[in-house]
Amino acid sequence: ATLESALHGAVRGGELHLLYQPLEDRHGRWHSAEALLRWRSPVYGNVTPDQFLPLAERSGLSLPLGEWTLTQACAQLATLPGLRLAVNVSARQLADPGLPALVQRAVQQAGLEPARLSLEVREDVVARAPERSRQALTALRETGVRLTLDDFGGSHTHLEGLQRLPVHAVKLDRTLVQGLDRGTRGGALVAAVVHLARALDLEVMAKGVETQAQQAQLREIGVHNLQGFLISAPLDLPALQARLGVAE
Ligand code: G
Ligand code: G
Ligand code: NA
Ligand code: MN
């Protein structure tokens, strides 16, 4: 069997699961988490999203995978009182006119307040089709979920289009956070990007935070919603529940 046919089976056969990577707030509390898809294949072992998501896009599995992820993430979020959850949405999913209805169904079936869910769309995905993306995001926003531009400032920030984009938040690209280690220029760049986002009334988060020095610099710049190995690696659901002090 090929990796592709194995992936078909994985969606049906219970080989997929979600890990959750928390974000801390300004008080160091875990207020939200991001769902990260994992595939444990009996044949191929652990296959990373970087390997199987491009394959899924090519083989028409993007939508079934995305539907599984949204449904599962919402069901599990219902066991995590008070927490917010982010789910990544692929280019193919964003282009699917059925996405808003799917999101609405997943949220309703789980009995969730829609604003507890946020959808993350990568900036380069939006940059490739700005007008179509703006329309898709506008339809998604009507469901009441929150919207985040992921990997912000990493590649093609389109300043004129940004102000018309109906997103609530941006998540700074990992390379910006890594740039903090390269002295004052890195800090100045992050401060400028954050200033830009704030001018547009966008909430700012950062990912890939690995060191206390990065955390301190981000806090100094005024970015308090932080994600990365310093705060926590991605956790399975029982580990997250244990850390949050909720019973299963
Ligand atoms: O989980 P990990 O850090 O290995 O993620 C690798 C890449 O896969 C990241 O860019 C992440 O955003 C993406 N990714 C993880 N889970 C999902 C998912 O459920 N859907 C989509 N579209 N991307 C995901
Ligand atoms: O780009 P995105 O955030 O969607 O990708 C998440 C991926 O990055 C996951 O595979 C996750 O395991 C990994 N990751 C999470 N935190 C860190 C971090 O602090 N540093 C690095 N290098 N990778 C991280
Ligand atoms: Na991610
Ligand atoms: Mn993300």
UniProtKB/TrEMBL annotation:
<feature type="domain" description="EAL">
    <location>
        <begin position="1"/>
        <end position="248"/>
    </location>
</feature>
<protein>
    <submittedName>
        <fullName>EAL domain-containing protein</fullName>
    </submittedName>
</protein>
